[in-house]
Amino acid sequence: MKMEKDFFPVGREVAGIVLDVGSKVSFFQPDDEVVGILPLDSEDPGLCEVIQVHEHYLVHKPEKVSWTAAAGAIRDGVRACTALYYLSHLSPGKSVLIMDGASAFGTIAIQLAHHRGAKVISTACSLEDKQHLERIRPSIARVIDISSGKVHVAESCLEETGGLGVDIVIDAGVRLYSKDDEPAVKSQLPHKHDIITLLGVGGHWVTTEENLQLDPPDSHCLFLKGATVAFLNDEVWNLSNAQQGKYLYILFLLI
């Protein structure tokens, strides 16, 4: 993908009706209802009434799914599928910690993890978030309320897993330094040491912290556990045509 552009499209999550197709298009016909995500190098933003897009970025929208739900859920759905199915290889019986489970991304990730037969633990950043998570069915194994700043996430996870640790962690960002050295917006995030502590043997840590820094002791601890760290970047699917089939499967799975 060539990224030498001054401007990038906005409103990239799209849903609509196919008006016309090119001579080599085989997946769609006029009047088909579709949903998808425009690539970063798209010439048209999704906020236009009419756009041109390659068929490999779209899938059919089921009739029972509304336009708003289809376009609104697809981005976070792709991120959740990427984190659970491709970066951490989720399988039935695994334990998963999903940070900030009441967010759009977190809620979808919880549902996908339950669908795959995993045991889910999640954190809540407020009373409203906690109540939302407690209403989710199937029930979450443990909701950890971190809004007060007095609950230790690592201790709660180790207690829930009988001291074995969590198989998969999907964070919503982490603190790299002490609370005094971090901006206030990160005050409720767990420290990277907490994540490493609660991670089980052979575990997978999927992080959204693009500037994650691991010191030698951190790396040594991960090495002893045989654990892995993966960076969650959902744009990676469109960086190579070799990944197109998996990407379309994810879109189809979500919708």
UniProtKB/TrEMBL annotation:
Domain Enoyl reductase (ER): start-end pairs: 5-251
Keywords from the UniProt entry: Oxidoreductase
CDD domains, per the entry: enoyl_red (cd05195)
Listed EC numbers: 1.-.-.-
UniProt enzyme class: oxidoreductase
GO terms for MF: oxidoreductase activity
Protein name (database record): Quinone oxidoreductase-like protein 1 isoform 1
Lineage, top ranks: Eukaryota, Metazoa, Chordata, Craniata, Vertebrata
